[in-house]
Amino acid sequence: MILKVTIDEKTFPLEVEDEMMLNAQDAFQKMDADMNQGWQMSRMWVDYPNDVQRCQIAADKMLTAIQHENTATVGLMSAYILNKMPGIQVIDIDTTGDITLTEIVMS
Asked: Which one of 20, 37, 46, 58 counts the least CB within 10 Å of its CB?
């Protein structure tokens, strides 16, 4: 599967192998369990993030992983987003520090 990621108006494809999607289910469940406790999203606290907010959180983690060249985390966050929102076409990650401005484009 391919997730197109836009950062600072540059779009690039991230390929996520089917095997990663299958093998990461336990990690996805742990991520969801962590987010079920609530999450600080920029200036607001969200008690129970919805699927879009969960993808925004994962995208924020992906941005940090890209900046630190942590390819394993980039792959995991990409897989999580594709798993959480089937049909996602592009995720445009906000780089201004406001996680809520990250946009998700569905097909």
From this structure: 37
Residue spans per domain, the chain: 2-106
What average pLDDT score do residues 47-75 get? 96
For residue 107, what pLDDT is reported?
83
Question: CB neighbours of 21 closer than 8 A, spacing ≥ 6?
Answer: 1, 79, 82, 83
